[in-house]
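Quick note —
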Amino acid sequence: RESLFPWLRGKENILLGIKINPNEGTCFQYQDLINQLDFPKSIDLTKYPYQLSGGQCQMIAIAQALILKRPILLLDEPFSALDFDMQIKMALSIRRIAKENGITIIAILHNLNIAYYFSDRCILLGGTPTKIIGEESINEKRRENQILQNFPFNN
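Predicted structure written out below.
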């Protein structure tokens, strides 16, 4: 909720970047982006943030960040207010959108399972002072196998 403007409805929050930058070159079409993110029908984008759940607000904030189709997207815990199934769904949707549109995403994630679904490359930080303690490239085959293991109903 903190990244949304409380006096704007969900749709208005998503479109705010376009309203502020009307001459912006490439942007997603609003309905296209909502469809690509596969927003649940239960999210009423005519409501104000205080009328929505934390997870619904977080999904709106993700759409707000994506709408201008910037070449680099920085995300800090973008899925923390979503349940596990929705985290996976959003991670895969955002990953697909980024890949199809040449968007580089740098994300801070504390959930390694979600990082695994979301990333091409994971860098694990730790220690004091903080330093890189591990790095792993994630290929599509391993990601698909992991998805099938966590979602047996997909088989």
